[in-house]
Structure formats: structure tokens, C-alpha cells
Design goal:
Blueprint (H helix, E strand, L loop, with lengths): L27 E5 L2 E5 L4 H4 L29 E4 L37 E3 L19 E4 L34
């Protein structure tokens, strides 16, 4: 049984066109205030079910939700801006220079030296998590880690991207556009 179907399609009169082959698929949908969030993979949460992890739990800010301990080598989320042009990751015990600096705060002063044009989510203030992209391209949101195979669970994040002021500057006298 279908809840939704394809009502019209520009090429519906084409020979051999089967509208049932183009029916709508179920998606996970959630709202937050006036925003609508759509996840095209309805099984996403089932694929990343939380296990009863007793150690090394981390929230999106890299802290243990029970103790408040700030992890430096793994845990939490890093956002790479388009101008970074890459994903950043931590290092193992032999590469502690790739860890967040002591005491583990997620701010620019404690960011590892190899991380440029990227930031960690910081729960001390919502304004700390706002950035302006300086280039066109992809935002990469990833877990801060160096060994991803041992991860369990998931972070649920809501992202709002706003287009900035697109007003073109007034032309200078004597210039041609």
C-alpha cells in the first residue's frame, strides 16, 4: 500500500513509461520551530542504534554526558568549512599533536595546529557555533576521531545554512560591468 504516489510527470505520455516505477518513497521527517528536516534514509537510526556503552561516551561537544570529562583525542563533532577543502581527524597516542589542546575546550585557542578553516561544536554559547563561509563548496560535518571502526551510536545534529547578503557593490565611476 502506498500513502503517496506520483500524480503527474512531464514524460508520462512517453511509450513504456510506468508511473509505479517512480512512486514516492517514505522518508523520516521532523520539525523544530518553523524548520522542516528530512532524512532520505528512513533506516538511518536503525543502522546506528545506540548500544549500552559504559565507557567513552561523548556528546556532540566531546564531553562525557555523565561526568563532563572533555575528551581530546576523540568524541564530538568537527565542521570543516568549504575553504578547508578537506576533512580533519585526530591522531593516536603517537600523534598527540593532533589532539585538542589541554584542557580540551572546543575553541580556537585549543584547536590542534593542523586544523584550519574548521571548528568544533562548543556548547558554552550558541553564537560560538556560527561561521561565515568564505568560499563556495561543501561543508563536511564529521566525528572527531582517528579510528572510526570502534564507534557506536550517532549524533543528531540540526544545521541551518543561510545565504548571506548577495547585494552587489555599486560600480565605481568609470568602470564597465
Amino acid at each position: 500500500m502506498r500513502d503517496a504516489f506520483l500524480a503527474r510527470f512531464a514524460r508520462a505520455a512517453s511509450p513504456g513509461f510506468d508511473p509505479d516505477a517512480f512512486s514516492l518513497l517514505p522518508v523520516s521527517v521532523d520539525t523544530w520551530g518553523p524548520f522542516l528536516f528530512v532524512n532520505p534514509d528512513p533506516e538511518a537510526q536503525d543502522r546506528f542504534k545506540e548500544k549500552q556503552v559504559k565507557t567513552m561516551r561523548r556528546d556532540p561537544f566531546g564531553e562525557d554526558p555523565g561526568t563532563g570529562h572533555k575528551a581530546r583525542a576523540e568524541g564530538g563533532v568537527i565542521v570543516s568549512m568549504p575553504e578547508a577543502g578537506q576533512i580533519f581527524y585526530s591522531g593516536n597516542d603517537d600523534h598527540q599533536d593532533r589532539w585538542i589542546k589541554q584542557p580540551g575546550l572546543r575553541d580556537n585557542a585549543h584547536r590542534p595546529d593542523h586544523v584550519r578553516n574548521a571548528y568544533f561544536l562548543d556548547k558554552r554559547s550558541t553564537t560560538r557555533n556560527r561561521r561565515t563561509a568564505r568560499a563556495a563548496g561543501d561543508f563536511v560535518i564529521s566525528a572527531w576521531d582517528h579510528e572510526f571502526a570502534d564507534n557506536v551510536g550517532f549524533y543528531r545534529l540540526h544545521v541551518l545554512v543561510k545565504r548571506g547578503n548577495t547585494r552587489r557593490p555599486d560600480p565605481q565611476p568609470g568602470t564597465v560591468e
